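the four lines:
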Amino acid sequence: MKESFNPDSPPAPAALAAKVRTLAPSMTRSMQRVAEAVAHDPAGCAALTVTGLAELTGTSEATVVRTARLLGYPGYRDLRLALAGLAAHQQSGRAPAVTADIAVDDSIADVVTKLAYDEQQTLADTAAGLDTVQLGAAVAAAATARRIDIYGVGASSLVGQDLAQKLLRIGLIAHAHMDPHLAVTNAVQLRPGDVAIAITHSGSTGDVIEPLRVAFDRGATTVAITGRPDGPVSQYADHVLTTSTARESELRPAAMSSRTSQLLVVDCLFIGVAQRTYETAAPALSASYEALAHRHTPRSR
Amino acid sequence: MKESFNPDSPPAPAALAAKVRTLAPSMTRSMQRVAEAVAHDPAGCAALTVTGLAELTGTSEATVVRTARLLGYPGYRDLRLALAGLAAHQQSGRAPAVTADIAVDDSIADVVTKLAYDEQQTLADTAAGLDTVQLGAAVAAAATARRIDIYGVGASSLVGQDLAQKLLRIGLIAHAHMDPHLAVTNAVQLRPGDVAIAITHSGSTGDVIEPLRVAFDRGATTVAITGRPDGPVSQYADHVLTTSTARESELRPAAMSSRTSQLLVVDCLFIGVAQRTYETAAPALSASYEALAHRHTPRSR
DNA sequence: TCACCCTTGAAAGTTATTTCCAACCCCCCG
DNA sequence: CGGGGGGTTGGAAATAACTTTCAAGGGTGA
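prediction for all of em together
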């Protein structure tokens, strides 16, 4: 995906709420109202005509259609159909008990429950929203890459390190760059056949975009892992992997759920690569286990 | 039969095939053809317009609409909507063999699904197994600590860094030590009122136990986050937080699920602390957001 | 402050659905 | 065996729904 601006070609089947959250920031005010209504009450909206939904949201038919388009459907008709499916779907699924936000006065037990639930939700959203074609392409590129450079700052830096650690373990040459300057310096060394991976939730982190741009210009295969597939970072990404944008609260910064989402994507990427390099990956993995063994003191049984 | 005849008021939700069988005898030949098509392939029919379905069944639009009426819907539009719901429903009913291990020849899509499921399972397990009393005690200690030192190596090091990053953000003095030697050196500085947190999945990582032991001896409050609460690390821990030990496979090393589990625990710890230091945490959080704002390039709308 | 571009809804245009109606077919009665 | 009669059918008109176009409004940066 180089210059294309359409987030995804196939209309999503069920990951609607996730998609709404992901795309919401790139929507105009009116469209956000429509998207919100749709996400809030899929079943109710499925019962409405274009005109009805337009009136409900205080917008026009045109805006409703535009929103449907943005969500990946050819028109409102198809969105409505998907909505009906979604409604039936969630009706069958039992009522989720924990929907409330985490509050300041929640008990510890509540925090654990809600947090675990939120994270699970984030995982489900991410899995549903992940474009497996893009992922497959990224995997293929990484599996045969001469070297893999990974860029991430702040919380995303840890995700990058995690990926680098694992790729190193299966014998690939991977490096997570935390210093933006060194990242750029190193990116210059890349060439076709190499892979550069940028991790940024916002999709607009300059310190991460810059090295990716350089890598892109040098002809390396570039991958962006971002929650904003429409952000600037995608400009320089051959493959864009979208992480989910979960609702955040005051106590639960976005970094928390984006990290979960990013880790899932990164893990999928890793396993994909491990599959494709199984011959070398498997022995490398067990070798690294053995190397660590003496670092563990005997168990007190 | 008059055009306005309506067999029953509530449009059936899902029992469509049954209704078709029940009503089939009372249908005319053409209508039976339509009903049969609908019952045979709900999903396919949902994708068709009146005209399309009429052509498919070799009948006319009028007949299709009549059939929809007979089945209890106001018109074809509504039948189609119900059909879409039904299709989604039975698609989800198709139980994905998600419990199976991730295999070398799994498709990318399978990997994503299975991995997300496994992670969700890990989260549920962790939440269920977490001792909220111990967690509460750890939170209380951390919230009032003069300084917080965190020890972790390997994959756990990233979790430690994550925790340190977040605690720093809300104005606490936290440091994640990655170098075992420096960790010990620093642990010597600890005293009562300080908190030391060791993160080790195996519970027997010497490089992590050693600094914790020192901290423990110095009188600091010590916390262990481990998957083996019976391991050596617990010896020197005032509070033990247990992470779950999910099944691992050849392609999915233990590090992956233990990391998920550790992160949940660490997040719970963080939110607990944030709750207890809300007065200072909230402003500190928003301040850190603003400080980063200029690092993001403007959005491409 | 002005020019520009993005956003928006009204209205026109297109497609889908529903209604109407005449032709047809089948069955039964004469 | 032939001629009604009632039910069945599809063509076509009418309506409703959806999509596209376009010009006015509003915000933003120079």
